[in-house]
Amino acid sequence: MKINQNSKIKEVEVEEGTRGMRKKVLIGPDDGSKNIIMRYFTLLPGGYSPKHSHNHEHLVKIESGKGIVVDKDDNKVEISEGYSVFVEANEIHQFQNPFKENFEFICVIPNTDKR
């Protein structure tokens, strides 16, 4: 068993195609997890993730603040604490924060780079 204290995990700036996006890997390969990775993202006010897709599905749980999730047709849905999102494999998506407070969420993905 591996137990991490989230506040002690290094936060890194996500730069490619983003603005104001920070990430922590809460549990991942460095912790011995061979199949799944749990990440914590913070989108600062005015921030956004890239509009992208990938070959795997993932789960998102909103932890605090509110934000917007955008689909392939540019439909925008406001989400906040208490919401969860399922993103299918190859589904185009983006997260945005046009609000005045941080938007924070957990994202769980498969470890596609198996060690």
Mean pLDDT: 95
Radius of gyration: 14 Å
What general form does the structure show? Answer: globular
Low-confidence stretches: none
CATH class call? Mainly Beta
Number of helices: 0
User: What percent of residues adopt helix (DSSP H or I)?
Assistant: under 10%
* Count of individual beta strands: 9
What are the main properties of this structure?
single chain; 115 residues; mainly beta; Jelly Rolls; 6-stranded antiparallel sheet; 3-stranded antiparallel sheet
Describe the structure.
The chain is mostly beta strands and 115 residues long. It has one domain (8-110): Jelly Rolls, CATH 2.60.120.10. It is built from no helices and 9 strands. The protein has a 6-stranded antiparallel β-sheet with strand order 1-2-3-9-4-7, with no helix packed on it. It has a 3-stranded antiparallel β-sheet with strand order 6-5-8, with no helix packed on it.
What is the compact description of this entry?
The protein is an all-beta fold. It has no helices and 9 strands. It has a 6-stranded antiparallel β-sheet with strand order 1-2-3-9-4-7, with no helix packed on it. A 3-stranded antiparallel β-sheet has the order 6-5-8, with no helix packed on it.
Strand-helix topology:
Blueprint: E1 12-14, E2 19-27, E3 36-48, E4 58-64, E5 66-70, E6 76-80, E7 84-87, E8 94-96, E9 103-110
